[in-house]
């Protein structure tokens, strides 16, 4: 029995990786069975139908390669996911180029597996005209690529809804503008002022930025507060920032750069292109080759620190 105090997301997290891998294996297996059945039925209508084992080799080799390429598509989608709102053309162009590479790898690897299977039974797989077939294969591969990307996007959206999003609770209040200095009435001619006119007051310093102290987090219809000082470290995750707090992850729709402006710069320092840390939560700094470092946090996690941000880390820790 699981801990009843854990919500659905917390109970799902330990088996998440197994579910994700199992999902794509099942999808590809079902698709292979369906396509093989259609190909076998279609073969009966041909004057010289291919052997059953050949159809099995064709479909299995294709779907095995598709399955192996799913992690690469996940990586591409994760890399391109921050672009849609501001760079839609770059986002679409990135996926278009990735689909071409996806199709080329799929066709080459698929033909290679088929050649090995034919060799195992003493036959020779004919590669003649494979370049002419690539256009036809690309049209099929584009559909497979788009379907996989859509599945990744839908699953990510589901996980965001399941995990919940954080938002700023304390909105900055507008400070009232300073009142203008009182006007001094002109003195009549020949009348001495009772006292010398006071020099004009120096301009007021700009108001200090108002930073939120708490964030509201929603998870599965539950709401609770996170103090800004309780954040251990932060990570850029596409259009979101992941807040890591006491072993839990919360997402805030913002860029890492924008979100850091709402935190105390004396406490939070950027240590990587996609990571920032609470200086008070660093337990140990482990130097690495090339000037990089690995930060060991008090919650047991590790955060990368690139050489570019080492000086900022030393200044903040000093």
UniProtKB/TrEMBL annotation:
Pfam families: LytTR. Residues 215-318 form the HTH LytTR-type domain. Residues 186-198 have a biased composition (Low complexity). Residues 199-209 have a biased composition (Pro residues). Residues 172-209 are annotated as: Disordered. One of its GO terms (molecular function) is DNA binding. The chain crosses the membrane at residues 21-43, 55-76, 97-122. InterPro entries: LytR-like, LytTR_DNA-bd_dom, LytTR_MHYE. Signal peptide: none annotated. It comes from the Bacteria. The keyword Transmembrane helix applies. Keywords: Membrane, Transmembrane, Transmembrane helix. PANTHER family: STAGE 0 SPORULATION PROTEIN A HOMOLOG, TRANSCRIPTIONAL REGULATOR-RELATED. This is Transcriptional regulatory protein YpdB. The lineage of its organism: Bacteria, Pseudomonadati, Pseudomonadota, Betaproteobacteria, Burkholderiales. The gene is ypdB_2.
């Amino acid at each position: 029995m699981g801990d009843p105090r854990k919500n659905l997301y917390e109970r799902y997290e330990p088996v998440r990786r197994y579910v994700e891998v199992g999902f794509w294996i099942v999808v590809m297996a079902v698709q292979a069975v369906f396509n093989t059945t259609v190909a076998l039925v279609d073969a009966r209508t041909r004057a010289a139908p291919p052997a059953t084992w050949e159809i099995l080799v064709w479909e299995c080799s294709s779907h095995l390669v598709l399955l192996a390429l799913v992690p690469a598509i996940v990586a591409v989608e994760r890399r391109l996911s921050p672009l849609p709102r501001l760079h839609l053309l770059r986002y679409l162009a990135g996926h278009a180029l990735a689909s071409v590479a996806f199709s080329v790898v799929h066709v080459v690897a698929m033909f290679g597996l088929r050649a090995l299977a034919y060799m195992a039974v003493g036959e020779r797989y004919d590669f003649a005209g494979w370049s002419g077939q690539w256009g036809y294969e690309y049209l099929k591969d584009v559909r497979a690529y788009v379907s996989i990307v859509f599945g990744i996007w839908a699953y990510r959206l589901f996980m965001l809804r399941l995990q919940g999003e954080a938002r700023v609770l304390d909105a900055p209040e507008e400070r009232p503008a300073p009142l203008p200095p009182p006007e001094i009435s002109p003195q009549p001619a020949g009348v001495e002022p009772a006292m010398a006119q006071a020099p004009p007051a120096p301009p007021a310093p700009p108001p200090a930025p108002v930073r939120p102290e708490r964030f509201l987090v929603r998870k599965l219809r539950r709401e609770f507060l996170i103090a800004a000082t309780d954040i251990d470290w932060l990570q850029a995750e596409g259009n979101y920032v992941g807040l890591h707090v006491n072993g839990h992850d919360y997402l805030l729709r913002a860029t890492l750069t924008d979100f850091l402006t709402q935190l105390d710069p004396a406490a939070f320092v950027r240590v990587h292109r996609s990571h920032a840390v609470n200086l008070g939560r660093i337990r140990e700094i482990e130097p690495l080759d090339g000037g990089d470092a690995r930060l060991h946090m008090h919650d047991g996690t590790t955060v990368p620190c690139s050489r570019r941000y080492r000086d900022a880390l030393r200044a903040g820790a000093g």
